[in-house]
Specification:
With 73 residues, the protein is an alpha/beta fold. It contains 2 helices and 3 strands. It has one domain (2-72).
């Protein structure tokens, strides 16, 4: 299964949701024999304090999600 994760919140201040996102990525990275493929989406370069396995890729996107659209979610 291909799974996309929005990691835009990992930038800057490391509190609340950014810490939660980073911990999820670390947990996924520890999985043994995972058949899933993960794509971490961000609009800026990110640094995860771990070397990522082959099934986890970081993809930098250039588009921004309009605030009005975020308010709907």
């Amino acid at each position: 299964m291909n799974i996309g994760i929005d990691v835009r919140g990992v930038h800057g201040n490391k509190a609340g949701i950014p810490i939660y996102i980073e911990e999820i990525v670390k947990r996924i990275n520890k999985e043994e024999n995972s058949q899933n493929k993960y794509i971490l989406y961000s609009n800026k370069p990110i640094e995860i304090n771990a070397s990522l396995k082959e099934n986890i890729k970081i993809k930098q996107i250039k588009t921004r999600i309009p605030r009005k659209l975020l308010a709907i979610f």
